[in-house]
């Protein structure tokens, strides 16, 4: 059974008296361990699709299955538990908590899971070493470069060892070299730990690193290669 | 890193706003504590002064004497004076006799309240007599009288002059006796200065045909807060004499008690308004803080935080704000109380040197007294208000939808 399965999923947003179809009748299967990019121009429905896979939003129609569980119509409490235990998020603008240090940001999800301080710290030491963040543990996000912040965001997403990491335009705020480095890093994590990565991006660099590219246009599946 | 640490760090994101809110909270707590303690000190002094001149902290009457002041309700105290004096916490027991009558000089006559007292017992207790020397006190059975200054003036008498007091004896006959102005007191209470006529208790009792009897046993305590402990002991002593009743000062002097209650109620109203205004300020601070973090809360929800956890986070922030305000406010409140008790507020430039309130004269230099239970109570109340102020912001935080918040810039 695939890790993620979308069955005839649609998402319709009300906009005044009109209705905007963001995703229309889309079906998709993603296996565990894939390194997939949802590609397409702005407004093609990439982020909406990613939000539904990530249990941040519910589909208007259709079913979303994650790890053999139908999550499309689950209640808020269940969705937040699924996000905590199975999903890691990486955002375009990093979205670190500015009052917390790099280490505190990275261990945030583990804190939510109730993991003890000692265990959290050990995991952060390992992750920071792997991500090249040694010595930056006590820095606040504002004292870090964009690339460093995104590495901390990757650490936060990976810390609780999720089944899938969802990254919404993760390189859009970074220069090419940093983007290249981060993509290589995520690919390494995908390869070594078997974590599934799903990106939304229209950046050719990201697309070039992908194992599978799912192209969207006007909320519909254009191609899958 | 736990929720308390995160909440604490969040509080200091907008340092200036948090400091202003803390200042408003702690300043209002300081004012409430300081001015309550000032009132507490003034009221305590008024009660003390009132009970020493009036009924005592506790008082023994026969039946309903307190309701109508009917002089027929007199009683023989027998051994009660010494028995009550032996109770722990009792400073003095003052037997008194009150007889309405008429005082006549050669030129004028006035209605008076002839009060029979034990001069030596009253001397150190009764504020009306505290300025007199032992020689200026009347004797227990002599014809020396202490007059209020206004009464002296209205009767057109001078110290040493003689005058006649007429009253109705217990058997209904009118009786007149001559007294001599021995000394004069000015209490500052208009009605008292117009009607006060103190003589020795034995002389008054003999004149009224009720030798050895009294209308009142005023029990003065060493500490007015001990009345709850002494009252049941006093009631136990009266067990064998069902016609006698023990009352506390507030039952026996409802005018003073009600005046204090009314004054404090108006002050409490101001306290409540002040605290409500401050609470609105706290709501504003917390709400702004939540709205500013709309996107951040969305991220927290996305990475797995529950809406309950966000609500708890807002409450913890309010709790920490309240705790810091409680500590700072209590320190400032203690400093203000210390100043008000040591230095006080001098009203002499604004009012007469003697000021009457609720039938009692109080010192124009107002001084605070420590009311620690109240200070703790109001500090706890401040903490509760901070938490109450977090309810609406916490509800708002809990309603944030992660997908919508992540689109927010």
TrEMBL record, chain A:
GO cellular component terms, A-Z: membrane protein complex; plasma membrane
SMART domains: AAA
Gene3D superfamilies xref list: P-loop containing nucleotide triphosphate hydrolases
Every ABC transporter domain range: 4-225
Pfam hit, one: ABC_tran
Keyword Nuclease: no
Molecular functions per Gene Ontology: ATP binding; ATP hydrolysis activity; transmembrane transporter activity
Family matches, as InterPro entries: AAA+_ATPase, ABC_transporter-like_ATP-bd, ABC_transporter-like_CS, ABC_transpr_LolD-like, MacB-like_ATP-bd, P-loop_NTPase
Keywords: ATP-binding, Nucleotide-binding, Transport
PANTHER family linked: IMPORT ATP-BINDING PROTEIN
Family: Belongs to the ABC transporter superfamily. Macrolide exporter (TC 3.A.1.122) family.
Name listed for the protein in its UniProt record: Putative ABC transport system ATP-binding protein
Source species: Malonomonas rubra DSM 5091
Higher taxonomy: Bacteria, Pseudomonadati, Thermodesulfobacteriota, Desulfuromonadia, Desulfuromonadales
TrEMBL record, chain B:
Cited InterPro entries: ABC3_permease_C (IPR003838), Lipoprotein-release_system (IPR051447)
Membrane topology, as annotated: Multi-pass membrane protein
Gene Ontology CC terms, in alphabetical order: plasma membrane protein complex
Protein location: Cell membrane
Keyword Mitochondrion: no
UniProtKB keywords: Cell membrane, Lipoprotein, Membrane, Transmembrane, Transmembrane helix
Domain ABC3 transporter permease C-terminal: 269-400
Main localization of the protein described in the UniProt heading: membrane
Superkingdom: Bacteria
Keyword Cell membrane on entry: yes
Residue spans crossing the bilayer: 269-291, 312-340, 374-395
GO biological process, one term: lipoprotein localization to outer membrane
The family this protein is said to belong to: Belongs to the ABC-4 integral membrane protein family. LolC/E subfamily.
Protein name: ABC-type transport system, involved in lipoprotein release, permease component
């Amino acid at each position: 059974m695939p890790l993620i399965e979308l069955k005839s999923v649609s998402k319709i947003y009300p906009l005044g008296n009109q209705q905007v179809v963001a995703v229309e009748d889309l079906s998709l299967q993603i296996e565990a361990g894939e390194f997939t990019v949802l590609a397409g121009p702005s407004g093609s429905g990439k982020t909406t699709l990613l939000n539904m896979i990530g249990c941040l939003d519910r589909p208007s129609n259709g079913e979303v299955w994650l790890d053999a569980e139908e999550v499309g119509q689950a209640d808020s409490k269940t969705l937040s538990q699924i996000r905590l235990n199975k999903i890691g998020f990486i955002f375009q603008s990093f979205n670190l908590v500015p009052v917390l240090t790099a280490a505190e940001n990275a261990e945030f999800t583990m804190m939510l899971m109730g993991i003890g301080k000692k265990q959290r710290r050990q995991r952060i030491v390992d992750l920071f070493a792997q991500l090249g963040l040694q010595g930056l543990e006590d820095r606040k996000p504002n004292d870090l470069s964009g690339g460093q912040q995104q590495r901390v965001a990757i650490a936060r997403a990976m810390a609780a060892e999720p089944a899938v990491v969802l990254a919404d335009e993760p390189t859009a705020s970074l220069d090419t070299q940093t983007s290249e480095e981060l993509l290589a890093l995520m690919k390494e994590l995908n390869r070594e730990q078997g974590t599934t990565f799903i990106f939304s991006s229209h950046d050719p660099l990201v697309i070039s690193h992908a194992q599978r590219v799912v192209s969207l246009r006007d909320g519909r599946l254009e191609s899958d290669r | 890193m736990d929720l308390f640490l995160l909440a604490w760090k969040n509080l200091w994101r907008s340092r200036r706003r948090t400091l202003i809110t803390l200042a408003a909270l702690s300043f209002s707590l300081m004012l409430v504590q300081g001015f309550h303690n000032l009132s507490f000190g003034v009221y305590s002094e008024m009660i003390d002064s009132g009970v020493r001149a009036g009924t005592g902290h506790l008082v023994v009457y026969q039946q309903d004497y307190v309701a109508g002041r009917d002089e027929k309700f007199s009683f023989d105290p027998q051994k009660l004076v010494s028995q009550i004096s032996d109770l722990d916490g009792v400073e003095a027991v003052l037997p008194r006799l009150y007889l309405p009558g008429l005082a006549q000089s050669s030129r004028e006559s006035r209605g008076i309240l002839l009060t029979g007292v034990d001069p030596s017992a009253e001397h150190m207790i009764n504020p009306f007599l505290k300025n007199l020397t032992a020689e200026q006190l009347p004797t227990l059975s002599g014809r020396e009288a202490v007059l209020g200054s206004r009464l002296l003036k209205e009767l057109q008498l001078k110290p040493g002059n003689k005058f006649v007091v007429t009253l109705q004896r217990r058997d209904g006959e009118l009786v007149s006796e001559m007294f001599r102005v021995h000394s004069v007191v000015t209490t500052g209470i208009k009605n008292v200065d117009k009607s006060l006529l103190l003589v020795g208790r034995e002389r008054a009792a003999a004149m009224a045909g009720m030798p050895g009897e009294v209308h009142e046993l005023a029990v003065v305590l060493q500490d007015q807060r001990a009345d709850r402990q002494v009252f049941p002991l006093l009631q136990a002593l009266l067990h064998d004499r069902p016609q006698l009743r023990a009352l506390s000062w507030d039952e026996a002097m409802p005018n003073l008690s009600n005046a204090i209650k009314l004054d404090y109620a108006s002050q409490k109203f101001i306290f409540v308004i002040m605290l409500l205004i401050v609470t609105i300020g706290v709501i504003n601070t917390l709400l702004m803080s939540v709205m500013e973090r709309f996107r951040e809360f969305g991220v927290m929800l996305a990475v797995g935080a529950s809406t309950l956890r966000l609500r708890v986070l807002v409450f913890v922030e309010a709790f920490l704000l309240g705790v810091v305000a409680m500590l700072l406010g209590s320190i400032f409140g203690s400093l203000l109380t210390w100043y008000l008790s040591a230095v006080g507020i001098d009203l002499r430039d604004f009012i007469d040197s003697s000021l009457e309130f609720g039938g009692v004269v109080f010192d124009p230099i107002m001084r605070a007294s420590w009311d620690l239970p109240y200070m703790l109570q109001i500090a706890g109340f401040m903490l509760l208000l901070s938490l109450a102020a977090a309810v609406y912001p916490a509800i708002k935080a809990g309603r944030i939808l992660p997908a919508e918040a992540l689109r927010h810039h």
